[in-house]
Design brief:
Blueprint (H helix, E strand, L loop, with lengths): L8 E2 L37 H5 L10 E6 L5 E2 L2 E2 L4 H6 L4 E5 L4 H9 L5 E6 L6 E14 L23 E16 H14 L7 H4 L5 E4 L1 H9 L7
Parallel strand pairs: 1-5, 2-6
Antiparallel strand pairs: 2-9, 3-4, 5-8, 6-7, 7-8
């Protein structure tokens, strides 16, 4: 983001496809992940008391990869730049991750919980890759940019009484000991696809255009261990 807008993060990714809502860097061809809808209750349905006793659903993932652009790019006269150094420079090194306009990416953010870890991935730049780690410090809430007509992420189809889009707050944790480029990750992905390994199904390659992606604990740990290894 430009300095005047550095109080929040931009999650614009490299692509610019059109979806059901405002344009976004996410790939809107991805399938929307929807929760099943309960049918009407009948006399044979379980009691309200039993239903209320059900524990909340547990997210399948606790590690994430989140893309943002570290290099200046103007869109409607606004610089959407926001790299890890921009996050680090914010008060308390914390910012809101706004601007996601893809339903699957939004749903992934709604699955995030405080304490989850995410890789900060630099996209749409000379050398894309993973720059550092951040913590999820506030769970999903309404993304205010969808209602701001001056914002590049404005969505005229979203209404205040029924908002479409959510965001989370993230906090800078640390830089990786070395930048892990996409080119290196791709080599491991191809190796693991052929011979087996943690990165064989990594969403970075199977759902490449999605700006918010889940990681298994094995994927996260493998990538994290690369910071102490020489590049291949």
């Amino acid at each position: 983001m430009a300095p005047k807008r550095s109080t929040r993060a931009s999650t614009r990714a490299a692509d610019s496809s059109q979806g059901d809502a405002a344009p976004d860097g996410d790939d809107n061809d991805e399938v929307d992940v929807k929760k099943p809808v309960r049918g009407k209750r009948s006399a044979s349905d379980r009691s309200e008391k039993k239903a209320k006793a059900e524990p909340p659903s547990i997210p399948l993932f606790s590690h994430w990869l989140m893309k943002s652009e570290p290099e200046s790019r103007l869109e409607n006269g606004i610089d959407v730049k926001f790299g890890i150094e921009d996050l680090k420079a914010l008060p308390n090194q914390t910012g809101c991750w706004d601007g996601v306009r893809n339903y699957q990416a939004r749903n992934f953010m709604r699955d995030m919980r405080k304490g989850h870890l995410a890789f900060f991935y630099h996209s749409n730049c000379k050398e894309p890759g993973i720059a550092g780690i951040m913590d999820i410090v506030k769970e999903a809430y309404v993304d205010h940019t969808q209602f701001d007509k001056k914002d590049v992420h404005f969505d005229a189809s979203s209404k205040p009484d029924s908002p479409k889009w959510s965001m989370v707050d993230v906090q800078y944790q640390r830089m990786l000991q070395r930048f892990i480029p996409l080119s290196e990750l791709k080599k491991y992905h191809l190796q693991h696809g052929a011979n087996g390994g943690p990165l064989k199904s990594m969403a970075l390659f199977t759902r490449a255009r999605l700006s918010v992606q889940p990681l298994t604990s094995e994927e996260f740990q493998f990538v994290l261990d690369l910071e102490n290894k020489a590049p291949i």
